[in-house]
Amino acid sequence: IMKKLVFTLFVFVLISCKNDKKKDLKVENKKTEAKQPNIVIIYMDDLGYGDLGIYGAKGIETPNIDRLANGGVKFTNGYATSATCTPSRYGLLTGVYPWRNKDAKILPGSAPLIIDTTQITIPKMLKKRGYHTGLVGKWHLGLGTGIVDWNKKVTPGPNEVGFEYTYIMAATQDRVPTVYIDNGFVVNLDKNDPIEINYDKNFDGQPTGKENPELLRMDWHHGHNGSIINGIPRIGYMKGGKSAKWIDEDMADHFLEKAKAYVDAQKEEPFFLYYALQQPHVPRTPHKRFVGTSGLGPRGDVIVEADWIVGEFVKTLEEKGILENTLIIISSDNGPVLNDGYYDDAIEKLGNHDPKGGLRGGKYSLFDAGTRVPFITYWKGEIQPTVSDALVSQLDVLKSLAALVDIEVEETDSENLLDAFLGKTKKGRKSMVIEATTRTAFREGDWVMIPPYNGPLVEKQVNIELGNSDEYLLYNLKSDKSQQNNLAKSNPKKLSDLLFSFEAIRGN
Ligand code: NG6
Ligand code: CA
Q: Which residues in 401-484 belong to E strands, given as ranges?
């Protein structure tokens, strides 16, 4: 009897263990299923570390983005990979340092695609996990393979590196062609008025900013004296395509409409949307609803406009009942610039606002304001609000999203910082290389080291300190946020430590 009893007990224990395991497995499965939120990256253009209310802006109100930051993680050490647009976007989407790609420099509107179509990208990776992938807004990573015929399907482009739906501007608001491109096709193009683009010389008889100042409603300060479109002189020359040209003031609303429609169209699958806003890049052309809303002139007004756009977009997610199931990441491609080539009162009306948020430098600079940018993650109900000083780079979005949706990706420069992005830890990466116009520097912990570079101390036209110097620069960003005290001489040990780690990555 005893033997029988022990045996029954044994069988009972075995069965209940098995059941428990089954239960665990179920929970596991559920967990993986649940971890497929929609993912939206809202990427601003030239928005400085200090340009949002939540980051200390003065005279610019950004209640909608502030609300997301207050309900999510506001990073104080969040970085773009580069101090200009193309390289930063390359780093964000591929997880690869842009200085590894010699073509990752500010591109003309006619440049070929610089992402290899065999390379891993965020949308490609998410597609493998069943996501639908969309892109609305600024591209600036090149299109085609050399000479683009804008009157035919423009390819390869974003659709060939992972995006299933794309509605873009090719490069920047100040570069031709000034048209929208819908999945490779120029929108509203009249076949009888074909588009021609040239970045070297003008087309006969076409007015330019240089030769026809009487036709301008916005004056150029430097560069930007090519074709005149909507009274604004641009970089490069464009002929034809009259019916396809965008209206600058409507661009924000236009992209918003497309972004909302994209979200609306997504029914079954989770989606990834890369929503790349054009503000506050030049030319700054707020819709008339926003003119004068900041008191800082067009630069402030377009930031207010962008904030409104973000609010409307989030409202759409709310109305569709999917805000709780959407991870939103907001950041900027590089630091701020005031006069980036047009007279638009950005300097005159600045008041006591500091777009750099107390940092040194700006767009184009190796000093911190070049690459340290607003960085916010928000996921209603999932992320507990916090301010995080974790060191995070846009490079890390790729690997972290891979971890979120539970997919293996090949090694890149990206690190899995998912817990930091979800506000669960304040531990970020240990170090990273930063880049500005092909020059590189190195941050490790609170320290940053900038090697010597030839070149002007200040880029006069934009009035920004570039970080060039004939000696090594070493700063402790914790005690010296504005990089005033060069400690290279007084702390040679730190300098050589950083140099050693830097060279190990940079390989020179
Ligand atoms: C520069 C432009 C600047 C801006 C920048 C790209 C001149 C003189 N300056 O060459 O206005 O367009 O390129 O900005 O042309 S970015 O944010 O896309 O990198
Ligand atoms: Ca930019």
A: 431-436, 439-444, 447-450, 458-459, 464-465, 473-476
